[in-house]
Every structure is written in C-alpha cells, then in structure tokens.
Design brief:
The structure is a homotetramer. The first copy, chain A, has nine helices and no strands. With about 220 residues, chain A is mainly alpha-helical. Chain A has two domains: about 55 residues, Arc Repressor Mutant, subunit A (Orthogonal Bundle), CATH 1.10.10.60; about 140 residues, Tetracycline Repressor, domain 2. The termini of chain A are far apart. Chains in contact: A-B, C-D. At the A-B interface, helix 6, helix 7, helix 8 and helix 9 of A face helix 6, helix 7, helix 8 and helix 9 of B. The structure holds a DNA duplex (21 and 21 nucleotides).
DNA sequence: CATGAATGAGCCTTCATTCAT
DNA sequence: AATGAATGAAGGCTCATTCAT
C-alpha cells in the first residue's frame, strides 16, 4: 500500500508545505542532506518535528519533493526562455543566462542541486535523470537548429556536445558556489557562450582540426 | 595532541593500509560516504572493525587519506603526461586523455571523487581545493603556451577557460559513471579536445563573434 | 555553544528528570560510575536509552547533576540544622546527627557520594570542592563559637580540626555502608561527638599533653 | 581451572613484575583504574601490551596485586613501628607518623589506595577488608594497652574509636592529596594525635561529658 | 620471554519516526 | 492539524585480550 500524505499537502495555497521545503533546502545547503536532521529543518521552519511528517513521507521524501517541485519548476523555465528566441545562438544564450540567473537567485537550491546531482543518490536517481534529460534535450534541439541554420558545425558528436555544455555551465556555477557567491554569475554567460561557439583555438592554426572523425550522436 | 597511527601505516610494504583504503573506496562508491559503515568497509577488507582504527584515525580520516594518497597520486600523473608533449595542443590532449584513462581504470575512485568534489565537504575541503588548483594551473599553463605559440586565442578569459575545460571533462566522466561504465571513456578525449579548440560554431557565421569583450584574467 | 536540555528538565513537576536521576544513583551505587551503563540506568528508570539524553547531556552530566541537585540539597539541610541550636556543642551534635541521618536515609546517595568523593574525578572536582567547603566552613564556625563560649580549646589547629571531624564521620559512614547498612547509623552520633570533644585520653594522664605546640591556623 | 602466571612472576628478583606494577600504579593514580588502559601502562613500563599478560592475569589482577604486594608491605611496616614503642601513646604516635610518612613517600600509591578503598570495588573487597582489619586491630590493641596503663578512658566504644582514628588520618591524607602534596604531611601527626587524645573540648566544660553511655565494643 | 597487530564485544550517543494529547 | 516527548535501532569507536611470530 502506497503512502499518501495525511494532508492535501501539495495544494498550491498550503504555505506549510513550501515553508518546510524551503527550510529543508536551506538546511541541506548548509550541512548536506545526510548531515541535516529533521529537528534542524523543523526549527528552521518554525514547526514541530512531527509536523514535517504530515507533509512528507519521510526525510528522503523531502529530497524527492525538492526535485519534483522546486527543481522541476526551475527547469521548466528554461524551456520558456529558449522558446522566446528564434535564432539558435540566442536560444543557447538565453538558456545559459537563465540557468545562471536562477542558480544565482537561489543559492541554497543551487548548492543542494549540485551536491545531490553528483552523489548517484538512489533516492532521486530517476528525478535527476529526468531533469538532466530535459536540459540535454534542449541543448540538442538548439544545436540541431543551429546546424539547420548553417550556424553550427555538422560534424558534431551531439551526445558529447550536450554534456560539454552542461558540464561547463555547472562547473562555473560550482566555482561560484565555492567562492561564496561573491561575484556576479550571470556575467559569465556571454564569455561562456563564446567558448562554446568558437572554442579556444585560432581557426586554421591546428592542423589536425580537420582530421577528427566523429559519429554524429 | 596530534594523532599518530598506531601502526606505521603508510610504509610501502604495508598492504593492510591500502587494503582497507581500497575497500573503503569501493564501499563509498557504492553507498556514498555517509551511507557507508565501518562494518561494511571492514567486511569488504576482510578485517575486523577495530583494525581500521589502527590505520585510520576515524571514518573521516579514511576520506582524507583517499585524497592525500590515492587521488594525489593520480593527479601527479597528469603533470608527467603534460610534460611529455611539447606542443600545447598535444599537452592538452595528453592531459584529457590521461584524465579519462585514470578515471576509467578506477571507477570506484572516480565515483568517490566526483561525489565528494561537489559536496562542499568540510572534511576534505582543503584537499579538494589543492587537487583542483593543481589541475586548473596545468590548464592555464597549457593555454598560455598555446597563446605564445600563436595557436590559441589571446582574448580568453583564462579563469573561465580552465573551468570550462575541467567542467566538460568531469561531466563526460559523470555521464559515463551514470551509464554504468559501459562504453569506452578514452575515446571521448579527441572529440572533446576538438570542441575545446574549435567550439561548435562555424567560423564567421556568428556576427557577434567579434563583439565579445573579455578581460583576459 | 552550550548545551541545553531538550526538555525543561528541572521543572518541579517533571518527574522523569528525577526518575532517571534516582535510577542512575541506584545503578551507580551498585556498580560504580564507570561500570554502569546507560542501558542499565534506562532499564532501572523504565525508559528508553535515548530518553536519558533528553534530560542529560551525556553520562558524565548525570553525575554532575547528582552533585548539583541531589547532594547540594542534602548539604543545604546541614546549615538549617546548625542554625537550630545555640550552643556550639549542640550545633556540632545536630550537624553530625543530620549528616548520619541523611546518609542513612539514602544509602544509594551515600554510596555514590563516598565513592566519587575520593576518586579525584575530573568531572565533579569543582562540585566536590564546593560541597566539602560548605561542610568544613560549618565546622570551623561551630568551633570558633565554641572557643568564644569557653567550651573549646583555643590552641586548636582549625584547618586540621575540621578535617579530623569530617574524616571521622565519613569513615563511620563508610564502615556502615560496607556492613550493608545493618545497624543504626544515627546512634553513632553521640559517641562520636564525645570523642571529638573529649578525645580518648584521660585528662592529665599524658605528660606531653601540654607540650604540643600548634599554630592556631 | 585456576589461572597460573606463565612466568614465575612474583619472584623477588623479577624486575619486570615490579616495573609493570609501579607503572600501573602511576597510571591508575593519574587517571583512575577504569580510565587507565593496558596500553598506557605498557607504555609507562616500557614493555609491550602483551607482556603485561605474562605477569598479570588481567587488568583487574593488577589491582589485586597492588593490594597483595604493594599495600600489604606498607601496612606490614605499621606493625613493626608499633612494636618499637612501649608506651601506648608512643605506639599510636608511631603508627600515625609512619602512616603519613609512607603515604607521603609514595603519592601514587596513596592516590590509588584512597580512591579504591572507597569504591566498594568487588575485585579487591577482600583485600581492602584485610588491610583495614590489620590497621584497626592495631589501633584496638594500642587503645586496650592504653586503658590497661591507665592512660586512656575506659568508657570507650572501641569499634568506633578505631574508625574515628583511621577516618581522621585518611581524611588528612586525602586533603593533602587534593592539595597536590604541597606541604609536609608528617607534620600533621602530632597535632592529630593531640586531637585523638584530648579532643577539642575543655575538660569539664561540657556538662554532658559524663552523661554519655557507651557499650564498650 | 617478548612483541604488537588483530580481534570483536560492548558502550555511548544520535536521530528518524511514532503517537498520545 | 499540530505538537514534542519518547522510542530504539544503528553506528562509530575503544580497549582488554589473544596469538602468531
């Protein structure tokens, strides 16, 4: 028998659900998921320990909900942002800019997301894969459009390209997090896009440039 | 009073130290650091629980030793690999290839490294920073040589470039880990280098290519 | 950061705090502090192991609380008893009688007190000193009054006298404890006072009686 | 089957037995019996942990041996000292003086003796009783001689008198130990004897002096 | 005789979860 | 709905003791 919350917990207007979720993210951001306790979360949220179990199945479930509601919502915004632009270059720029913007705006979410994402955590493996796929598909879509527009190279290993972009963006975010969030993350977007597009080499300078053979995708 | 291992643990000929360390990495890789128990590690190593404390101060110390001995050694190899090549392009290729090779060769190490590296773990914060700096400095060195050789663009935001490269490589590794290590990771090296050098754009196709202003770090 | 009990532990109406404290004293009395386990105390108190940590910081804290609440209360009674009498002789008699009475009434407390008091236990060193000083000061006060009243010798080494009295009383208690508490301890009070006052010698029989030189503290 | 030391351990000329015993006493004095570890004792003695088990059955046995060899020897000296004197007063003085002298000379022994003596420790209950009886019998013998000599009161509660004396002496020692052994303990002997003999009262000043009725022994 | 690495039982302590109020 | 006291399973760590060398 599957567990049902005792309370219509996820109703949009239910403050306490979100109150606890936000408190949890804050605490997870500070100590890491396994180092955080239900008591800490309860104290941060200003509720009793037991109250948390009215809205969440258990501690693990808080993390799952984080992905299912909080993160999903953030990533959904990426789609909108991409749709705003026509040009593949602008789409990519919008995507990266929005990514950096959202993560800069919610540092706690960013910390938890980045940490859990690399933990190969059984609890949220599925959710992470979905989130990741959503992003990667977006990139592939953009690059394919870029190829169709004649703006992007056709000899690209797409499944590599998408990770190359996601990895670089996430690493830039990670560095910003480690720095304590002292500088403006969004300003990294344009230089980053430039690297994605042009790379670091001077065109024609590398003899082997032409030699690389890739199986597209 | 500083703790000393009860046993001259790090002597070359002492297998038990390495036996336990390897067992621990395997267990950490499977369950994550905080989900792993000393008993699991002991069982995996084929020793008694108490034996672990003859070689390690406590559970945390195992993770610290992982960075101080295991990982440090892997990263030291990167330096050698870079020094083997003259050309900046070859240096970069050697670095990335070796990186992928080492992580493919020791999947457990790779899993633990990737996970802990994003956890903002207090225990090994210092070690992670050192390891990371070692890598990033290597990249900067290569790119600067590339610029001197006239092979790489001079208008590069170096502190961004180094993370762009590290991030992309690590994400490729991460994806490989998530896939269960089913394909050949090293074969990713050349396509990846190609992306670093040339990017995904067709030279001249993007109007704004020239417009980007960067402070060359 | 200072520890606060999770529960308003010392509230008058909170039985569980006292329940556990009494259980602990009983167990300590039977096995000694270091030989007693939290599980034993919990079982004796009829609570779960974890419950103890809602009221006490840790095992050591139980011993500290024993001194801060249980013993302090007993010793506070000594002051009242002394104040009841006018005559220095009666004051001394009341003090010793009450001392023996309280320790006879709570054999477990007596056992723990006597044991810990001689252990030079770091945990409660301060508390023991305070408790001891309280008692010794009381004796000094009485003897000084006795001297003023012309009932007690003026050539007394006060700091020795106070220990002479405390030591004799405690040894009598100790013997009673070792015997298993089979006889009436309070009946020892009068003969003991007699020894304090008159000693064991026949007045004038010892030639050297007059020869002893003391620095009246 | 009873345990026998693997080695003729108690041979007078065996240094290691005494080496370990002295080391143990030193360690017990510093940390208390239960807080001391075999490793600490081994280190203090300059031998391996395992070596201790060649001379002692187990940790408990070290404490038992402490009483059986070390303490017994000290207390045996008391008998000699008493026999040296003829007069009961001198006998008492010699006894107390020697007691203080021996305990001052070996502070570690004193610490361990005082601590264990009040612990109601199962391990050495028998030994402590013996040691104690030896001392108390000596006092009784002296007092009875004093009574025969017409130097001591006949209306004495002997079994109380002996504890009264032992208790006072031990408390004086205890105070000296707590002070860190800063002053001369032996100088306490004469003032103490004076208190035993004459008490603190002025002869005849207390009306009730005569009123006390005691059952001798 | 001596060593000291290895063992594993046992203990303190934490904390997710429950449930009576 | 909310509380928070109570629970007890689980885990990190210590250390007396053993035994192969």
């Amino acid at each position: 028998m599957e567990w049902r919350p005792a309370i219509s917990a996820k109703d949009k207007n239910n403050n306490k659900y979100h109150l606890i979720l936000e408190a949890a993210i804050k605490v997870f951001a500070g100590h890491g998921f396994y180092q955080s306790t239900i008591s800490q979360i309860a104290r941060e949220a200003g509720v009793a320990d037991g109250t948390i179990y009215l809205y969440f199945k258990n501690k693990d479930d808080i993390l799952v909900q984080f992905f299912n509601y909080k993160t999903r919502q953030v990533f959904a915004g990426f789609r909108e942002e991409v749709d705003k632009a026509d040009n593949s270059g602008e789409k990519l720029r919008n995507l990266v800019r929005r990514h950096l913007k959202e993560f800069q705006a919610d540092r706690d979410m960013a910390l938890v997301y980045q940490a859990v994402t690399r933990q190969h955590n059984r609890l949220v493996k599925k959710e992470i894969k979905e989130m990741s796929k959503l992003y990667l598909d977006l990139v592939v879509e953009i690059v394919e459009q870029g190829q169709a527009e004649g703006l992007m190279r056709k000899d690209l290993y797409l499944s590599l390209v998408k990770r190359y972009i996601l990895g670089a963006v996430e690493e830039v975010i990670n560095t910003w997090l480690l720095s304590g969030g002292k500088y403006d993350l969004i300003s990294m977007a344009d230089p980053l896009i430039d690297l994605f597009i042009r790379g670091i080499g001077i065109p024609g300078a590398f003899q082997q440039d032409e030699a690389i053979q890739v199986n597209s995708q």
